[in-house]
Amino acid sequence: MNDTDRKLGPTILKVESISLAFGGVKALTNISFEVKQHEILAIIGPNGAGKSSMLNVINGVYHPNAGSITYKGNVRQQMKPYEAASQGIARTFQNIALFKGMSVLDNIMTGRTLKMNAGFLAQCLHIGPARNEEIEHRKKVEEIIDFLQIQSIRKTPVGRLPYGLQKRVELGRALAAEPELLLLDEPMAGMNIEEKEDMSRFILDVNDEFGTTIVLIEHDMGVVMDLSDRIVVLDYGKKIGDGTPTEIRNNKEVIDAYLGVSD
Amino acid sequence: MFYREAGQFKTSYKADQAVFPIFQDKIFVAIWLFIGFVVVPMLASEYMFRAIFIPVIIMALAAIGLNLLVGYCGQVSLGSGAFMAVGAYAAYNFMIRVPELNPLICFLLGGLSATVVGVIFGIPSLRIKGFYLAVATLALQFFTDWTFSRIDWFTNYTPSGSIAVQPIEVLGVVFDSPIRKYFLCLVFLVIFTIIGKNIVRGRIGRAWMATRDMDVAAEIIGIRPVYAKLSAFAVSSFFIGVAGALWAFVHLGSWEPLAFDINLSFSILFMVIIGGLGSIVGGMLGAAFITLLPLFLNQLPVWLGINISTAMISHLEFMIFGALIIFFLAVEPLGLARIWQITKEKLRLWPFPH
């Protein structure tokens, strides 16, 4: 894929020998891989392979027992959620984790929290900096709403939205932080074919237009093979494959463990 | 028919983000302010000020404060009575120890003292949630009950442990008549309501609601739970502390530590739940409901001309009060504010069904 080679930048994230255990259960064992700037990397594997745990390690929800995470040149033993967010890592969740009591607009506005800095008193009185800030960020949020084509539901409480739209709003909330690295945990789970097509288009557009690096977990092999530049395969917490879609498709071990049928 | 937003186009985000984007709502609020500041003072009797308006207004302030914590940030607290006590006793001590201070400043300092206590007792919320947190805040309630009844310094060594204060004087105006007290409380309520509304519609409010709805996701967006929770405790305690100072100085005039016991905490929590969690107007509705319903039930037999003993009346009052609370929560768990919201949505379409 010449196209891929041309767009890729230097390594933005590198995880080395990550191991994570909950008591006696080993969720991840000695996992290493890198993500290049502007890449779309898919993590695949059977249920319980440790895919979500891997994302949780990257943005600091879980702290690994061993290994290191190098993000934008800084080596760390573990990330903290706040640090990860402030350095441009955003994510969506497998089970939608929207703020149910808030409107679509407020949910996406919340995604911009780290970019806002009006003082407490200004906010109490809603004067000067606080008000200007709200308006300025509202403009940004409206751009995201336009991009995701959810204009008509911007004032609806997210709890009332159908599943597919909630997934879209969650992507919007992650995008609001203008992330450099976007982690998507099963962005297309439970969607019908049209919704999957829409979501795939959004993911490609985000990658293309904003230059965002994307790490995604997905079970739909058609989507994974078409979208990703590179695929990492996990099984029982171990990495069993790492390569381009073509390489993965022909990898014997991956076929045995996960794909099942040989091409 | 008259409540329509048709034709009201927003041409700027500023207009769209206004507190009351619909014109009719603005008129409605203006009418309420007019009633509050002009109609009531002209018509109400002294008894009504003392028994109805002043307590409802002060309790509304406390309920709004607690709603910021429970309704917006999702941290259950049973310590509102304690925060009111801290506000009241701190204001009292500032007043007697630094007599040259303006009483209003003392009220605010009382609120700030409650803030400090609130932040300290909010620290457990970083580790525990829900019922467990409620129990932890209960500790504060017992702690303040004990402190203000046992440590005589706080009550300035009055032999009985109770405190009596003179009507406060601000810039030569003595707030001794019910109508003046009413205005004072109303101004406090209006200012604090505006502040509360501004906070919850801005960044801090969204951080609170995010923490309430999905704390893991909030953290990943970059909202630090420490800041979100403790700031909610701080702001909420400030509101409740100021309400406590007003309650003691303006409403009660003389009080003992029992005035701020656990029952008060419970009633404020009921106000918030019945009024509507996560709603500013809910705090006011809940305060009015909980304060007025017993008065109403008490007077009802008299109005109806039924002759029953006062003891019977007070028993019935408790039973009906309890039953009504259960009824309300069963019919509309989201409280009076939700009923109000549904009414508005219906009105928008009226006279058509949909």
Task: Provide key terms for this protein.
heterodimer; A: 263 residues; alpha/beta; Rossmann fold; 4-stranded antiparallel β-sheet; 11 helices; B: 354 residues; mainly alpha; two-stranded antiparallel ribbon; 4 strands; 2% strand
What would you say this structure looks like, in words?
The complex is a heterodimer of chains A (263) and B (354). Chain A contains 11 helices and 10 strands. Chain A has helices at residues 2-7, 51-58, 81-86, 104-110, 120-125, 128-148, 163-176, 193-209, 221-227, 245-249, 252-259; strands spanning 11-22, 25-36, 40-44, 66-71, 74-76, 89-92, 181-185, 213-217, 230-235, 238-243. Chain A has a 6-stranded mixed sheet with strand order 6-7-8-3-9-10, sandwiched between helices. In chain A, β4 and β5 form a beta hairpin. Chain A is globular. With 354 residues, chain B is mainly alpha-helical. Chain B has a domain at 45-261. Chain B has helices at residues 13-16, 23-43, 46-72, 80-97, 103-122, 130-150, 178-200, 203-213, 215-221, 225-252, 262-275, 280-304, 310-331, 336-349, and strands at residues 163-164, 169-170, 173-174, 254-255. The chains are: A alpha/beta (263), B mainly alpha (354).
SS strand fraction of chain B: under 5%
Strand order of the largest sheet of chain A: 6-7-8-3-9-10
Class of secondary structure makeup of chain A: alpha/beta
Query: DSSP helix count of chain B?
Result: 14
Distance between the termini of chain A: 20 Å
SS content category of chain B: mainly alpha
